[in-house]
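Colleagues,

Please find the record for the two-part complex below.
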Amino acid sequence: MPLERRALLHALAAAPALAPFLALERAMAATPPPKAPATLDDARIQAAEAHHKFMEVPNLRMHGGETVSMLLYPGFTALDLVGPHYFFASMMGSKVELVTNQPTLAPVASDLGLAIQPTATLNTAFARPTVLFVPGGSLGTVAAMEHEPTLDYLVERAADARLITSVCTGSLVLGAAGLLKGRKATSHWVARDILAELGATPVDARIVRDGPVITGAGVSAGLDFALAVVEELRGRPYAQALMLQAEYAPAPPFPGGTEATTDPAIAGPMEGMFAPLIFQTRAAARRRAAR
Amino acid sequence: MPLERRALLHALAAAPALAPFLALERAMAATPPPKAPATLDDARIQAAEAHHKFMEVPNLRMHGGETVSMLLYPGFTALDLVGPHYFFASMMGSKVELVTNQPTLAPVASDLGLAIQPTATLNTAFARPTVLFVPGGSLGTVAAMEHEPTLDYLVERAADARLITSVCTGSLVLGAAGLLKGRKATSHWVARDILAELGATPVDARIVRDGPVITGAGVSAGLDFALAVVEELRGRPYAQALMLQAEYAPAPPFPGGTEATTDPAIAGPMEGMFAPLIFQTRAAARRRAAR
Protein backbone atom coordinates (compact mmCIF):
# COMPACT_ATOMS: atom_id res chain seq x y z
CA MET A 1 0.00 0.00 0.00
CA PRO A 2 1.57 3.34 -1.01
CA LEU A 3 2.53 5.68 1.81
CA GLU A 4 0.21 8.43 0.49
CA ARG A 5 -2.88 6.24 0.74
CA ARG A 6 -1.84 5.07 4.19
CA ALA A 7 -1.54 8.68 5.37
CA LEU A 8 -4.92 9.48 3.85
CA LEU A 9 -6.59 6.58 5.63
CA HIS A 10 -5.00 7.55 8.93
CA ALA A 11 -6.46 11.04 8.53
CA LEU A 12 -9.84 9.64 7.57
CA ALA A 13 -9.93 7.37 10.60
CA ALA A 14 -10.07 10.50 12.73
CA ALA A 15 -12.72 12.23 10.62
CA PRO A 16 -15.99 10.29 10.49
CA ALA A 17 -17.62 13.04 8.39
CA LEU A 18 -15.38 11.99 5.53
CA ALA A 19 -16.76 8.44 5.47
CA PRO A 20 -18.43 8.85 2.03
CA PHE A 21 -15.08 9.90 0.58
CA LEU A 22 -13.47 6.85 2.15
CA ALA A 23 -16.07 4.66 0.47
CA LEU A 24 -15.07 6.16 -2.88
CA GLU A 25 -11.39 5.69 -2.08
CA ARG A 26 -12.05 2.08 -1.13
CA ALA A 27 -14.03 1.45 -4.30
CA MET A 28 -11.05 2.74 -6.26
CA ALA A 29 -8.66 0.36 -4.55
CA ALA A 30 -8.00 -2.72 -6.66
CA THR A 31 -7.59 -5.25 -3.81
CA PRO A 32 -9.51 -5.99 -0.59
CA PRO A 33 -7.72 -5.28 2.72
CA PRO A 34 -5.05 -7.92 3.37
CA LYS A 35 -6.16 -10.76 5.71
CA ALA A 36 -2.88 -10.81 7.63
CA PRO A 37 -1.31 -7.34 7.89
CA ALA A 38 2.48 -7.33 7.71
CA THR A 39 2.97 -4.57 10.28
CA LEU A 40 1.08 -3.08 13.20
CA ASP A 41 0.64 0.05 11.13
CA ASP A 42 -1.02 -1.96 8.37
CA ALA A 43 -3.25 -3.60 10.98
CA ARG A 44 -4.28 -0.17 12.24
CA ILE A 45 -5.16 0.96 8.74
CA GLN A 46 -7.18 -2.22 8.28
CA ALA A 47 -9.04 -1.39 11.50
CA ALA A 48 -9.68 2.18 10.38
CA GLU A 49 -11.12 0.93 7.09
CA ALA A 50 -13.25 -1.58 8.97
CA HIS A 51 -14.47 1.14 11.32
CA HIS A 52 -15.70 3.17 8.37
CA LYS A 53 -17.36 0.18 6.72
CA PHE A 54 -19.06 -0.53 10.03
CA MET A 55 -20.45 2.99 10.27
CA GLU A 56 -22.02 2.60 6.82
CA VAL A 57 -24.28 -0.26 8.01
CA PRO A 58 -27.89 1.02 7.78
CA ASN A 59 -29.57 1.75 11.15
CA LEU A 60 -26.35 1.23 13.07
CA ARG A 61 -25.73 3.85 15.75
CA MET A 62 -22.09 3.35 16.67
CA HIS A 63 -21.65 6.40 18.84
CA GLY A 64 -23.73 7.65 21.74
CA GLY A 65 -23.36 9.38 25.06
CA GLU A 66 -25.61 7.29 27.29
CA THR A 67 -25.03 7.28 31.03
CA VAL A 68 -25.71 4.00 32.81
CA SER A 69 -25.98 3.71 36.60
CA MET A 70 -25.65 0.16 37.94
CA LEU A 71 -26.47 -0.38 41.62
CA LEU A 72 -24.20 -2.36 43.95
CA TYR A 73 -25.41 -3.49 47.37
CA PRO A 74 -23.97 -6.05 49.81
CA GLY A 75 -25.05 -9.52 48.74
CA PHE A 76 -25.90 -8.68 45.12
CA THR A 77 -25.37 -11.46 42.56
CA ALA A 78 -22.29 -10.57 40.51
CA LEU A 79 -23.37 -12.33 37.31
CA ASP A 80 -26.69 -10.41 37.33
CA LEU A 81 -24.64 -7.24 36.97
CA VAL A 82 -21.54 -8.27 35.02
CA GLY A 83 -23.50 -9.77 32.10
CA PRO A 84 -25.24 -6.46 31.35
CA HIS A 85 -22.12 -4.45 32.28
CA TYR A 86 -20.22 -6.14 29.45
CA PHE A 87 -22.73 -4.99 26.87
CA PHE A 88 -23.42 -1.52 28.32
CA ALA A 89 -19.73 -0.66 28.74
CA SER A 90 -18.93 -1.98 25.25
CA MET A 91 -21.23 0.64 23.69
CA MET A 92 -18.82 3.21 22.23
CA GLY A 93 -19.16 6.54 24.01
CA SER A 94 -21.35 5.28 26.86
CA LYS A 95 -20.43 6.05 30.47
CA VAL A 96 -21.14 3.25 32.92
CA GLU A 97 -20.86 3.76 36.68
CA LEU A 98 -21.11 1.30 39.57
CA VAL A 99 -23.11 2.91 42.37
CA THR A 100 -22.68 1.57 45.89
CA ASN A 101 -25.51 2.02 48.38
CA GLN A 102 -22.91 2.05 51.16
CA PRO A 103 -21.34 5.24 52.60
CA THR A 104 -17.85 4.67 51.16
CA LEU A 105 -16.29 3.47 47.91
CA ALA A 106 -15.09 0.24 49.53
CA PRO A 107 -15.50 -2.87 47.33
CA VAL A 108 -18.99 -4.39 47.67
CA ALA A 109 -19.12 -8.16 48.21
CA SER A 110 -21.54 -10.30 46.24
CA ASP A 111 -23.56 -13.18 47.68
CA LEU A 112 -20.81 -15.53 46.43
CA GLY A 113 -17.93 -13.48 47.83
CA LEU A 114 -16.81 -11.64 44.69
CA ALA A 115 -16.24 -7.98 45.59
CA ILE A 116 -16.52 -5.24 42.99
CA GLN A 117 -15.09 -1.74 43.33
CA PRO A 118 -17.80 0.94 43.05
CA THR A 119 -17.13 4.16 41.16
CA ALA A 120 -19.82 6.32 42.79
CA THR A 121 -22.03 6.54 45.87
CA LEU A 122 -25.76 7.29 45.94
CA ASN A 123 -24.83 10.95 46.42
CA THR A 124 -22.25 11.23 43.63
CA ALA A 125 -24.05 9.08 41.04
CA PHE A 126 -25.23 10.52 37.71
CA ALA A 127 -28.09 12.95 38.35
CA ARG A 128 -29.98 11.92 35.21
CA PRO A 129 -28.85 8.48 34.01
CA THR A 130 -30.11 7.22 30.66
CA VAL A 131 -30.35 3.74 32.15
CA LEU A 132 -30.93 2.84 35.79
CA PHE A 133 -30.09 -0.77 36.59
CA VAL A 134 -30.59 -2.97 39.69
CA PRO A 135 -29.15 -6.50 40.02
CA GLY A 136 -30.71 -9.27 42.11
CA GLY A 137 -29.35 -11.23 45.01
CA SER A 138 -30.65 -13.22 47.94
CA LEU A 139 -30.77 -11.96 51.55
CA GLY A 140 -28.91 -8.83 50.49
CA THR A 141 -31.79 -8.02 48.19
CA VAL A 142 -34.25 -8.31 51.08
CA ALA A 143 -32.16 -5.71 52.94
CA ALA A 144 -32.01 -3.44 49.88
CA MET A 145 -35.82 -3.63 49.59
CA GLU A 146 -36.05 -1.84 52.93
CA HIS A 147 -33.01 0.43 52.73
CA GLU A 148 -34.55 3.91 52.57
CA PRO A 149 -31.55 5.73 51.01
CA THR A 150 -31.46 3.13 48.21
CA LEU A 151 -35.20 3.43 47.55
CA ASP A 152 -35.06 7.24 47.65
CA TYR A 153 -32.16 7.18 45.16
CA LEU A 154 -34.06 4.89 42.78
CA VAL A 155 -37.25 6.96 42.92
CA GLU A 156 -35.36 10.18 42.28
CA ARG A 157 -33.18 8.90 39.41
CA ALA A 158 -36.04 6.95 37.82
CA ALA A 159 -37.99 10.19 37.32
CA ASP A 160 -35.78 11.24 34.39
CA ALA A 161 -34.29 7.91 33.29
CA ARG A 162 -35.06 6.68 29.80
CA LEU A 163 -34.96 3.06 30.95
CA ILE A 164 -35.59 1.68 34.45
CA THR A 165 -34.19 -1.82 34.50
CA SER A 166 -33.33 -4.90 36.54
CA VAL A 167 -32.20 -8.49 36.31
CA CYS A 168 -33.33 -11.32 38.59
CA THR A 169 -34.71 -10.22 41.97
CA GLY A 170 -33.48 -6.68 41.27
CA SER A 171 -37.08 -6.14 40.13
CA LEU A 172 -38.19 -6.58 43.75
CA VAL A 173 -36.02 -3.61 44.75
CA LEU A 174 -37.58 -1.54 41.94
CA GLY A 175 -40.97 -2.75 43.19
CA ALA A 176 -40.15 -1.86 46.79
CA ALA A 177 -39.35 1.67 45.55
CA GLY A 178 -42.86 1.77 44.08
CA LEU A 179 -41.56 1.87 40.50
CA LEU A 180 -43.47 -1.17 39.21
CA LYS A 181 -47.04 -0.22 40.21
CA GLY A 182 -49.36 -1.19 37.37
CA ARG A 183 -46.45 -2.54 35.32
CA LYS A 184 -45.75 -5.97 33.90
CA ALA A 185 -42.41 -7.31 35.14
CA THR A 186 -40.38 -10.46 35.68
CA SER A 187 -37.84 -11.75 38.21
CA HIS A 188 -36.04 -14.95 39.20
CA TRP A 189 -38.47 -17.87 38.80
CA VAL A 190 -38.65 -18.65 42.54
CA ALA A 191 -39.53 -15.03 43.42
CA ARG A 192 -41.54 -13.89 40.42
CA ASP A 193 -44.99 -14.05 42.03
CA ILE A 194 -43.86 -11.78 44.88
CA LEU A 195 -43.97 -8.91 42.37
CA ALA A 196 -47.75 -8.98 42.77
CA GLU A 197 -47.36 -7.88 46.42
CA LEU A 198 -45.75 -4.70 45.08
CA GLY A 199 -48.49 -3.82 42.61
CA ALA A 200 -46.86 -5.33 39.52
CA THR A 201 -48.15 -8.05 37.18
CA PRO A 202 -45.67 -10.94 37.17
CA VAL A 203 -44.91 -12.29 33.70
CA ASP A 204 -43.10 -15.57 33.01
CA ALA A 205 -40.77 -14.36 30.25
CA ARG A 206 -37.02 -13.90 29.75
CA ILE A 207 -37.34 -10.15 29.11
CA VAL A 208 -40.40 -8.04 29.97
CA ARG A 209 -40.92 -4.48 28.75
CA ASP A 210 -43.62 -2.12 29.98
CA GLY A 211 -43.12 1.54 29.12
CA PRO A 212 -39.69 2.64 30.38
CA VAL A 213 -39.35 -0.49 32.53
CA ILE A 214 -37.36 -3.47 31.22
CA THR A 215 -36.89 -6.41 33.59
CA GLY A 216 -34.96 -9.63 32.99
CA ALA A 217 -35.51 -13.07 34.51
CA GLY A 218 -33.01 -14.86 36.79
CA VAL A 219 -29.21 -14.36 36.77
CA SER A 220 -28.13 -15.50 33.29
CA ALA A 221 -31.11 -13.70 31.68
CA GLY A 222 -29.01 -10.56 32.08
CA LEU A 223 -27.24 -11.32 28.80
CA ASP A 224 -30.48 -11.56 26.81
CA PHE A 225 -31.85 -8.53 28.68
CA ALA A 226 -28.76 -6.45 27.91
CA LEU A 227 -28.97 -7.16 24.19
CA ALA A 228 -32.58 -5.92 24.24
CA VAL A 229 -31.44 -2.73 25.99
CA VAL A 230 -28.56 -2.18 23.51
CA GLU A 231 -31.02 -2.69 20.64
CA GLU A 232 -33.29 -0.05 22.16
CA LEU A 233 -30.41 2.41 22.57
CA ARG A 234 -28.34 1.75 19.43
CA GLY A 235 -30.47 -0.28 17.02
CA ARG A 236 -30.31 -3.97 16.18
CA PRO A 237 -27.18 -3.94 13.93
CA TYR A 238 -25.05 -2.46 16.72
CA ALA A 239 -26.51 -4.92 19.23
CA GLN A 240 -25.68 -7.75 16.82
CA ALA A 241 -22.11 -6.46 16.58
CA LEU A 242 -21.72 -6.63 20.37
CA MET A 243 -23.41 -10.04 20.38
CA LEU A 244 -20.71 -11.24 17.97
CA GLN A 245 -17.99 -9.57 20.05
CA ALA A 246 -19.32 -11.49 23.09
CA GLU A 247 -19.60 -14.62 20.93
CA TYR A 248 -23.10 -14.94 22.36
CA ALA A 249 -24.37 -18.03 20.60
CA PRO A 250 -25.28 -19.93 23.75
CA ALA A 251 -25.02 -23.72 23.64
CA PRO A 252 -25.59 -25.28 27.05
CA PRO A 253 -23.95 -28.71 27.17
CA PHE A 254 -27.20 -30.35 28.38
CA PRO A 255 -30.87 -29.36 28.68
CA GLY A 256 -32.36 -27.47 31.61
CA GLY A 257 -32.56 -23.98 33.07
CA THR A 258 -36.32 -23.82 33.64
CA GLU A 259 -38.69 -25.81 35.83
CA ALA A 260 -40.30 -27.20 32.68
CA THR A 261 -37.01 -28.53 31.27
CA THR A 262 -35.54 -29.83 34.55
CA ASP A 263 -36.23 -33.25 36.08
CA PRO A 264 -38.91 -32.62 38.77
CA ALA A 265 -36.78 -34.68 41.17
CA ILE A 266 -34.23 -31.85 40.90
CA ALA A 267 -36.49 -28.81 40.32
CA GLY A 268 -38.84 -29.59 43.23
CA PRO A 269 -36.16 -29.73 45.92
CA MET A 270 -34.36 -26.72 44.39
CA GLU A 271 -37.51 -24.65 44.83
CA GLY A 272 -38.00 -26.03 48.32
CA MET A 273 -34.51 -25.05 49.40
CA PHE A 274 -35.36 -21.42 48.57
CA ALA A 275 -38.36 -21.46 50.95
CA PRO A 276 -36.76 -19.44 53.79
CA LEU A 277 -35.44 -16.80 51.39
CA ILE A 278 -38.77 -16.53 49.61
CA PHE A 279 -40.57 -16.28 52.94
CA GLN A 280 -38.38 -13.37 54.00
CA THR A 281 -38.59 -11.67 50.60
CA ARG A 282 -42.38 -11.88 50.60
CA ALA A 283 -42.52 -10.53 54.16
CA ALA A 284 -40.38 -7.53 53.13
CA ALA A 285 -42.59 -6.93 50.09
CA ARG A 286 -45.70 -6.98 52.30
CA ARG A 287 -44.15 -4.56 54.78
CA ARG A 288 -43.33 -2.18 51.91
CA ALA A 289 -46.81 -2.51 50.43
CA ALA A 290 -48.40 -1.77 53.82
CA ARG A 291 -46.63 1.57 54.21
CA MET B 1 -47.35 -29.71 61.88
CA PRO B 2 -46.90 -31.04 65.45
CA LEU B 3 -43.97 -29.63 67.40
CA GLU B 4 -42.41 -33.07 67.85
CA ARG B 5 -42.14 -33.65 64.09
CA ARG B 6 -40.76 -30.16 63.60
CA ALA B 7 -38.03 -30.82 66.19
CA LEU B 8 -37.24 -34.14 64.55
CA LEU B 9 -36.86 -32.54 61.14
CA HIS B 10 -34.67 -29.81 62.54
CA ALA B 11 -32.39 -32.46 63.97
CA LEU B 12 -32.41 -34.40 60.72
CA ALA B 13 -31.46 -31.31 58.74
CA ALA B 14 -28.15 -31.34 60.59
CA ALA B 15 -27.58 -35.06 60.15
CA PRO B 16 -27.32 -36.13 56.51
CA ALA B 17 -26.58 -39.70 57.54
CA LEU B 18 -30.17 -39.97 58.73
CA ALA B 19 -31.55 -39.23 55.26
CA PRO B 20 -33.08 -42.71 54.80
CA PHE B 21 -34.98 -42.29 58.07
CA LEU B 22 -36.24 -38.91 56.88
CA ALA B 23 -37.52 -40.54 53.67
CA LEU B 24 -39.50 -42.99 55.83
CA GLU B 25 -40.80 -40.16 57.98
CA ARG B 26 -41.83 -38.24 54.88
CA ALA B 27 -43.57 -41.24 53.42
CA MET B 28 -45.55 -41.54 56.63
CA ALA B 29 -46.68 -37.92 56.47
CA ALA B 30 -50.20 -37.61 55.07
CA THR B 31 -49.72 -34.30 53.27
CA PRO B 32 -47.01 -32.89 50.97
CA PRO B 33 -44.98 -29.94 52.28
CA PRO B 34 -47.08 -26.76 52.28
CA LYS B 35 -46.57 -24.53 49.23
CA ALA B 36 -46.61 -21.32 51.27
CA PRO B 37 -45.17 -21.83 54.74
CA ALA B 38 -46.90 -19.82 57.47
CA THR B 39 -43.74 -19.01 59.42
CA LEU B 40 -40.02 -18.70 58.76
CA ASP B 41 -39.56 -21.80 60.89
CA ASP B 42 -41.94 -23.75 58.65
CA ALA B 43 -40.04 -22.44 55.62
CA ARG B 44 -36.78 -23.68 57.12
CA ILE B 45 -38.25 -27.11 57.72
CA GLN B 46 -39.49 -27.15 54.14
CA ALA B 47 -35.95 -26.32 53.01
CA ALA B 48 -34.45 -29.06 55.18
CA GLU B 49 -36.87 -31.57 53.69
CA ALA B 50 -36.03 -30.35 50.21
CA HIS B 51 -32.32 -30.64 50.95
CA HIS B 52 -32.76 -34.28 51.87
CA LYS B 53 -34.89 -35.01 48.81
CA PHE B 54 -32.21 -33.37 46.71
CA MET B 55 -29.47 -35.56 48.13
CA GLU B 56 -31.48 -38.65 47.18
CA VAL B 57 -31.26 -37.82 43.45
CA PRO B 58 -29.16 -40.57 41.80
CA ASN B 59 -25.63 -39.52 40.70
CA LEU B 60 -25.94 -36.13 42.38
CA ARG B 61 -22.83 -35.10 44.30
CA MET B 62 -24.03 -32.19 46.41
CA HIS B 63 -20.96 -31.79 48.59
CA GLY B 64 -17.32 -31.50 47.62
CA GLY B 65 -14.17 -29.77 48.69
CA GLU B 66 -12.80 -28.55 45.35
CA THR B 67 -10.40 -25.62 45.30
CA VAL B 68 -10.69 -23.30 42.32
CA SER B 69 -8.05 -20.68 41.46
CA MET B 70 -9.25 -17.98 39.07
CA LEU B 71 -6.59 -15.64 37.66
CA LEU B 72 -7.02 -11.85 37.60
CA TYR B 73 -4.71 -9.64 35.53
CA PRO B 74 -5.03 -5.99 34.47
CA GLY B 75 -7.29 -5.77 31.43
CA PHE B 76 -9.02 -9.15 31.85
CA THR B 77 -12.61 -9.38 30.61
CA ALA B 78 -14.87 -9.48 33.66
CA LEU B 79 -17.67 -11.54 32.08
CA ASP B 80 -15.16 -14.24 31.05
CA LEU B 81 -14.51 -14.76 34.76
CA VAL B 82 -17.80 -13.91 36.48
CA GLY B 83 -19.87 -16.37 34.41
CA PRO B 84 -17.78 -19.36 35.55
CA HIS B 85 -17.35 -17.86 39.06
CA TYR B 86 -21.12 -18.00 39.57
CA PHE B 87 -21.22 -21.74 38.91
CA PHE B 88 -17.95 -22.67 40.64
CA ALA B 89 -18.75 -20.68 43.81
CA SER B 90 -22.31 -22.06 43.90
CA MET B 91 -20.95 -25.61 44.28
CA MET B 92 -21.56 -26.42 47.94
CA GLY B 93 -18.29 -26.87 49.81
CA SER B 94 -16.05 -25.55 47.02
CA LYS B 95 -13.45 -22.88 47.77
CA VAL B 96 -12.99 -20.32 45.02
CA GLU B 97 -10.16 -17.77 45.13
CA LEU B 98 -9.39 -14.81 42.88
CA VAL B 99 -5.65 -14.70 42.25
CA THR B 100 -4.09 -11.41 41.17
CA ASN B 101 -0.86 -11.47 39.17
CA GLN B 102 0.02 -8.08 40.69
CA PRO B 103 2.16 -7.65 43.84
CA THR B 104 -0.69 -6.43 46.11
CA LEU B 105 -4.32 -7.27 46.77
CA ALA B 106 -5.52 -4.01 45.18
CA PRO B 107 -8.63 -4.38 42.98
CA VAL B 108 -7.76 -5.42 39.42
CA ALA B 109 -9.44 -3.42 36.65
CA SER B 110 -11.00 -5.20 33.68
CA ASP B 111 -10.73 -4.04 30.07
CA LEU B 112 -14.10 -2.31 30.54
CA GLY B 113 -13.20 -0.64 33.83
CA LEU B 114 -14.86 -3.01 36.28
CA ALA B 115 -12.43 -3.71 39.14
CA ILE B 116 -12.60 -6.93 41.15
CA GLN B 117 -11.01 -7.45 44.55
CA PRO B 118 -8.54 -10.36 44.54
CA THR B 119 -8.37 -12.75 47.48
CA ALA B 120 -4.84 -14.08 46.87
CA THR B 121 -1.58 -13.30 45.09
CA LEU B 122 0.47 -15.68 42.96
CA ASN B 123 2.47 -16.46 46.11
CA THR B 124 -0.44 -17.08 48.47
CA ALA B 125 -2.73 -18.92 46.02
CA PHE B 126 -3.77 -22.54 46.61
CA ALA B 127 -0.74 -24.79 46.18
CA ARG B 128 -2.72 -27.58 44.53
CA PRO B 129 -5.96 -26.24 43.07
CA THR B 130 -8.51 -28.71 41.72
CA VAL B 131 -9.32 -26.25 38.93
CA LEU B 132 -7.00 -23.63 37.46
CA PHE B 133 -8.82 -20.97 35.42
CA VAL B 134 -7.65 -18.12 33.17
CA PRO B 135 -10.01 -15.50 31.69
CA GLY B 136 -9.41 -13.68 28.41
CA GLY B 137 -9.07 -10.00 27.65
CA SER B 138 -7.53 -7.82 24.99
CA LEU B 139 -4.20 -5.93 25.33
CA GLY B 140 -4.02 -7.03 28.97
CA THR B 141 -3.95 -10.62 27.77
CA VAL B 142 -1.01 -9.86 25.47
CA ALA B 143 0.86 -8.54 28.53
CA ALA B 144 -0.10 -11.61 30.59
CA MET B 145 1.23 -13.87 27.78
CA GLU B 146 4.71 -12.49 28.47
CA HIS B 147 4.53 -11.94 32.23
CA GLU B 148 7.02 -14.46 33.57
CA PRO B 149 5.67 -14.70 37.15
CA THR B 150 2.19 -15.42 35.75
CA LEU B 151 3.49 -18.11 33.39
CA ASP B 152 5.64 -19.68 36.13
CA TYR B 153 2.60 -19.75 38.43
CA LEU B 154 0.44 -21.44 35.79
CA VAL B 155 3.08 -24.07 34.96
CA GLU B 156 3.62 -24.89 38.63
CA ARG B 157 -0.06 -25.10 39.61
CA ALA B 158 -1.07 -26.94 36.44
CA ALA B 159 1.23 -29.82 37.37
CA ASP B 160 -1.19 -31.09 40.02
CA ALA B 161 -4.47 -29.52 38.89
CA ARG B 162 -7.30 -31.85 37.95
CA LEU B 163 -8.56 -29.37 35.35
CA ILE B 164 -6.60 -26.67 33.51
CA THR B 165 -9.13 -24.26 32.06
CA SER B 166 -9.78 -20.99 30.28
CA VAL B 167 -12.45 -18.90 28.61
CA CYS B 168 -11.94 -16.69 25.56
CA THR B 169 -8.33 -15.59 24.94
CA GLY B 170 -7.38 -16.98 28.35
CA SER B 171 -6.34 -20.03 26.33
CA LEU B 172 -3.54 -17.94 24.78
CA VAL B 173 -2.11 -17.37 28.26
CA LEU B 174 -2.26 -21.12 28.94
CA GLY B 175 -0.60 -21.60 25.54
CA ALA B 176 2.11 -19.05 26.30
CA ALA B 177 2.86 -21.03 29.45
CA GLY B 178 3.39 -24.09 27.25
CA LEU B 179 0.35 -25.89 28.66
CA LEU B 180 -1.45 -26.49 25.35
CA LYS B 181 1.31 -28.22 23.38
CA GLY B 182 -0.26 -31.06 21.40
CA ARG B 183 -3.71 -30.23 22.79
CA LYS B 184 -6.92 -29.30 21.05
CA ALA B 185 -8.24 -25.97 22.35
CA THR B 186 -10.49 -23.03 21.54
CA SER B 187 -10.51 -19.29 22.12
CA HIS B 188 -12.38 -16.14 21.04
CA TRP B 189 -13.26 -16.49 17.34
CA VAL B 190 -10.97 -13.63 16.22
CA ALA B 191 -7.95 -15.14 18.02
CA ARG B 192 -8.57 -18.86 17.74
CA ASP B 193 -6.04 -19.61 14.99
CA ILE B 194 -3.22 -18.01 17.01
CA LEU B 195 -3.37 -21.10 19.23
CA ALA B 196 -1.49 -22.92 16.46
CA GLU B 197 1.53 -20.65 17.05
CA LEU B 198 1.70 -22.10 20.57
CA GLY B 199 1.61 -25.75 19.54
CA ALA B 200 -2.12 -26.30 20.03
CA THR B 201 -4.74 -27.44 17.52
CA PRO B 202 -7.43 -24.75 17.27
CA VAL B 203 -10.98 -26.13 17.29
CA ASP B 204 -14.09 -24.13 16.38
CA ALA B 205 -16.35 -25.28 19.22
CA ARG B 206 -18.06 -23.74 22.24
CA ILE B 207 -16.27 -26.05 24.71
CA VAL B 208 -13.18 -28.12 23.90
CA ARG B 209 -11.81 -30.84 26.15
CA ASP B 210 -8.46 -32.56 25.73
CA GLY B 211 -7.22 -34.52 28.73
CA PRO B 212 -7.19 -32.23 31.76
CA VAL B 213 -7.56 -29.12 29.58
CA ILE B 214 -11.02 -27.58 29.07
CA THR B 215 -11.20 -24.35 27.07
CA GLY B 216 -14.26 -22.24 26.29
CA ALA B 217 -14.87 -19.94 23.30
CA GLY B 218 -15.35 -16.16 23.56
CA VAL B 219 -16.68 -14.27 26.59
CA SER B 220 -20.25 -15.58 26.99
CA ALA B 221 -19.12 -19.16 26.33
CA GLY B 222 -17.97 -19.12 29.96
CA LEU B 223 -21.48 -20.07 31.09
CA ASP B 224 -21.62 -23.17 28.87
CA PHE B 225 -18.01 -24.00 29.76
CA ALA B 226 -18.72 -23.73 33.50
CA LEU B 227 -21.65 -26.13 33.32
CA ALA B 228 -19.38 -28.67 31.61
CA VAL B 229 -16.85 -28.24 34.42
CA VAL B 230 -19.52 -28.60 37.14
CA GLU B 231 -20.79 -31.74 35.40
CA GLU B 232 -17.25 -33.13 35.43
CA LEU B 233 -16.82 -32.34 39.15
CA ARG B 234 -20.29 -33.08 40.54
CA GLY B 235 -22.21 -35.02 37.90
CA ARG B 236 -24.97 -33.88 35.57
CA PRO B 237 -27.87 -33.70 38.09
CA TYR B 238 -26.00 -31.21 40.28
CA ALA B 239 -24.96 -29.18 37.22
CA GLN B 240 -28.61 -29.12 36.15
CA ALA B 241 -29.60 -27.86 39.60
CA LEU B 242 -27.16 -24.94 39.29
CA MET B 243 -28.36 -24.35 35.72
CA LEU B 244 -31.89 -23.98 37.08
CA GLN B 245 -30.64 -21.74 39.92
CA ALA B 246 -29.01 -19.51 37.26
CA GLU B 247 -32.18 -19.78 35.15
CA TYR B 248 -29.83 -20.60 32.30
CA ALA B 249 -32.27 -21.15 29.45
CA PRO B 250 -30.72 -18.62 27.10
CA ALA B 251 -33.04 -16.86 24.66
CA PRO B 252 -31.24 -14.10 22.76
CA PRO B 253 -33.80 -11.54 21.51
CA PHE B 254 -32.47 -11.79 17.93
CA PRO B 255 -30.11 -14.08 15.98
CA GLY B 256 -26.35 -13.74 15.87
CA GLY B 257 -23.28 -14.42 17.99
CA THR B 258 -21.17 -16.19 15.37
CA GLU B 259 -19.70 -15.11 12.03
CA ALA B 260 -22.04 -17.57 10.31
CA THR B 261 -25.18 -16.10 11.88
CA THR B 262 -24.22 -12.42 11.62
CA ASP B 263 -24.77 -10.22 8.56
CA PRO B 264 -21.36 -10.13 6.77
CA ALA B 265 -21.74 -6.34 6.56
CA ILE B 266 -21.44 -6.37 10.38
CA ALA B 267 -19.17 -9.40 10.95
CA GLY B 268 -16.56 -8.35 8.37
CA PRO B 269 -15.86 -4.91 9.84
CA MET B 270 -16.03 -6.32 13.40
CA GLU B 271 -13.20 -8.71 12.55
CA GLY B 272 -11.30 -5.92 10.81
CA MET B 273 -11.49 -3.68 13.86
CA PHE B 274 -9.68 -6.35 15.88
CA ALA B 275 -6.73 -6.36 13.43
CA PRO B 276 -4.26 -4.38 15.61
CA LEU B 277 -5.04 -6.50 18.69
CA ILE B 278 -4.72 -9.72 16.73
CA PHE B 279 -1.45 -8.53 15.23
CA GLN B 280 -0.02 -7.86 18.67
CA THR B 281 -1.36 -11.11 20.11
CA ARG B 282 0.12 -13.14 17.28
CA ALA B 283 3.46 -11.36 17.69
CA ALA B 284 3.50 -12.21 21.41
CA ALA B 285 2.66 -15.84 20.65
CA ARG B 286 5.51 -16.02 18.13
CA ARG B 287 7.96 -14.52 20.62
CA ARG B 288 6.92 -17.14 23.19
CA ALA B 289 7.19 -19.97 20.67
CA ALA B 290 10.67 -18.82 19.64
CA ARG B 291 12.06 -19.06 23.17
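Residues 1-9, 11-31 of chain A have pLDDT under 50 and may be disordered.

Comments are welcome before we finalize the supplementary table.
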